[in-house]
Amino acid sequence: MAKNSVQFQKGCSLPKFLKAYGSEEKCREKLFKYRWPDGFHCPKCGHIHYYELKTRQLFQCTQCKHQCSITSGTIFDSSKLPLTTWFLAIYLITQAKEGMSALSLRRFLGISVNAAFKMKQKLQHVMKNADDQLVLEGFVELDDVYWGGKRGGGKRGRGAPGKTPFLAAVSRNEEGHPIHMRMSKIIAFNSSNVTSWSKKHLHADAVVISDAFNPFNCLSDSVAFHGKINASKIYENPDNRIFHWVNTVISNVKNAIHGTYHSISAKHLPRYLAEFCFRFNNRFYIGAMIKKLICHAANTRPRPSRLLKLAEQEG
Ligand SMILES: [Zn+2]
């Protein structure tokens, strides 16, 4: 998909958002549609007929008598916050130019710090699930990156203790414009980790360019073509733009995390990378990100706090 053929879509204005999602009733109606686009399905037996217990806001399956609410079994399950607050958070996270930290959400939404952090982590988890399904195709720039440790260590810090390794990849179209990106924390750089990452995130027909880092050698088995370039020579020539986009997104993500989120521990890094990727990969359709995120949230299983405290899955 050429960037030139894509019109950047403007974001959604606040009045327009409030018209669609400004009351609890409107939010419930939308969530019903996004959760069950083909009509109600009992979460227990799959039956399609139900009674509505209006006073308790529950649906009861006419077959197995199972009762569920609009939010049970979704990421909004057991939250004390109204849907209007959740959806407004989704609006702010997707429409604000630089995203929104948990502390800013707390201020805008008037909720507790604890509730804001939990909400942000749950929505980042949804963004990760949604964005992980995207596979990079075409021409892909790939690089290894390290988070933490000595700031600005870059390549010199390769393998330095205290640093968290992650992979960064950007796909480009024929005009050289960036289309999609993927950033994933990995446990360590070795052939088996790079192979399993590439099988999940790179199309088998992709053409991948990286530097001559040994763990990348395995890529020639999983993609159509893997070109290795001696990076030190590349950087001696300022006109060479072969790794331009991957370097740009790496410095953008590092600046964004330092600027907006201050310090992030390694265990939370995958969620922040996922948020960054989700917003980047949907940047041509800013307004549509609201519905997309709500749809994915409606179809993401609950994430109890004890799981949120653990590290997000690698890759
Ligand atoms: Zn049922």
Concise summary:
The chain has 315 residues and is of the alpha/beta class.
Outline the structure in words:
This protein starts with 13 loop residues before the first helix and ends in a 7-residue tail after the last helix. The protein has helices at about 15-20, 25-35, 85-95, 100-110, 115-130, 190-200, 230-235, 245-260, 270-280, 290-300, 305-310; strands spanning about 50-55, 60, 65-70, 140-150, 165-170, 180-185, 205-210, 225-230. It contains eleven helices and eight strands. It is elongated and about 70 Å long. A hairpin with a 5-residue loop joins strand 5 and strand 6. Helix 3 (about 85-95) packs across helix 10 and helix 4 (about 100-110) packs across helix 5 (about 115-130). The model is unreliable at about 150-155 (pLDDT under 50). The strands form two sheets. A five-stranded mixed β-sheet has the order 6-5-4-7-8. The protein is an alpha/beta fold and about 325 residues long. Zinc ion binds next to loops. Zinc ion binds near residues 44, 45 and 47.
What does the secondary structure layout of this molecule look like, with pairings?
Elements: H1 14-21, H2 24-35, E1 50-53, E2 58-61, E3 67-68, H3 83-95, H4 102-109, H5 113-131, E4 139-148, E5 163-172, E6 178-185, H6 191-201, E7 207-211, E8 225-229, H7 231-236, H8 244-261, H9 269-281, H10 289-298, H11 305-308
Helix pairs in contact: 3-10, 4-5, 5-9
Bound molecules: zinc ion.
